[in-house]
Every structure is written in C-alpha cells, then in structure tokens.
Amino acid sequence: MGKHNKAICHQCGFKNPGYSKFCTKCGKPMKTYCKCPNCGFENLEDSLFCTECGKRLFKDQKSKEKNRLKCSNCGNFNDLDAKFCIFCGKELIKTSKENLKRPSEGLSYKTISLIIILIFVFGFLIKLGITFFSGNKSHRFISKPVANVDETQVIAVAKHFKCACGGCGELPLATCECDMPKGAVEMKTFIRERLSEGFSVNQVIELLDRRYGHRI
C-alpha cells in the first residue's frame, strides 16, 4: 500500500504485509489508511494531519465523507477515483449532483393515472357538448321549401287552427311563426306538402286536424 511495505498491527504490534486486512498473528482487523490529497502519502485513517507533508487531511467527518467514496456494502471509505472497494471488492456507485437532480426516466403510476382521468373527463365534456347542441337542434323544426304552392291556400287552411306547440299561448296559426316542435312552422310545412301533393284545402284541414288538433 503506497510507501507502507509493512502494516503494523495496532493490537499486538506484529508487522504484516501492507495489503493485509487482518493481523496474521492475532486476527484483529488492521487499521485502514487514507491518502493525503496534497502529496498522496497514505496515513492511518484517523490521522488529522499527513505525516509526510503536514497537510490537514480532513477537517471533520462531513469533510471526510465528501472527499471519499463510501462503500454501500461494507461502509468503508475509498478514494474518489476508485471503481471497486479495496476492502470487500464491491463495485462503487458514484453519484453526482447532476444525477441527483436528474428526474427519473419514464412516467410514474400517479402521473399515468392522472392523464387517463383527464382523457376521460375531456371525452365526457365533448360528448356532453355534442348532446347539448344536437338536443337544441332537435327542438327546432327546419322548414323545407315546397315549390308551386299557393300561399293563399296555406292561409286558408291555417286560419282554422291555433299553434299546437303549447308554448306560445296558442296564437292563431295564420300569423304565428313559432319554430318549436308541433309549432306554426312545422304545421304550415305540413300544409304546403299536402297541397303540393294535390289535396284540396278542405282535405288538408281534416288531415291537419287529425295530426295536430287545435282546430278553431
């Protein structure tokens, strides 16, 4: 180990090879060494100053941990450039501030669940909007133009009825323009269609009465 050819056991004083982990005489664990950041000399781990150059080794335990790599397997500290622990041989995992700040790859289950919920809510709102607008359209009757119909005949039929929608106060059909279901627009369209098919005014009156009622 560096300039230490022999490692002296702190328990019995026996001189062991420098790479020894345990004393070959008494079996006690050997003291570990730390490298001086200034000259590279290996000192006993609990040394505060380098015995070679006098440089302060570590100010406190936090400083020591900051400048060494701690093995996750045995807990011993190694040099920063070490890839494997010199005590147990375990591969050392180096962490940096960038790695700590880097977000984990992939989405968490909580994030995925939130996305799924938002998709369902968004789909429900779209469906609700479509239903609302289509429902509003269904309440309105769009009249279809009927060609070759004498409007005087339409009025001749309409003057015998009131609007059948039930929401406009039963106004006279001849003057009402209500476009609600069973309203004036729908009833007059029915009149025009029957007249265009060749029915007479009296026949259309009877047909309209059977379908809508509200005859005067």
Q: Element order, helices and strands?
A: EEEEHEEHHHHH
Calculate the terminal CA-CA distance, rounded to whole Å.
Answer: 119 Å
Number of H/I helices: 6
Structural class: mainly alpha
Low-confidence stretches: 96-100
**Extended strand count:** 6
What's the story with the biggest beta sheet? 2 strands, antiparallel
Helix content: 25-40%
What percentage of the residues does DSSP assign to strands (E)? 5-15%
Q: What overall form do the CA principal axes indicate?
A: rod-shaped
In round numbers, the mean pLDDT is 78
Measured on Cα atoms, how large is the radius of gyration? 49 Å
Strand order of the largest sheet: 1-2
Structure, explained:
The chain is mostly helical and 216 residues long. Helices cover 34% and strands 7% of the residues. It has helices at 61-66, 97-101, 109-138, 151-158, 184-196, 201-212; strands at 6-8, 15-17, 33-35, 42-44, 69-70, 77-78. Helix 4 packs across helix 6 (201-212) and helix 5 (184-196) crosses helix 6 (201-212). It is rod-shaped and about 135 Å long. The model is unreliable at 96-100 (pLDDT under 50).
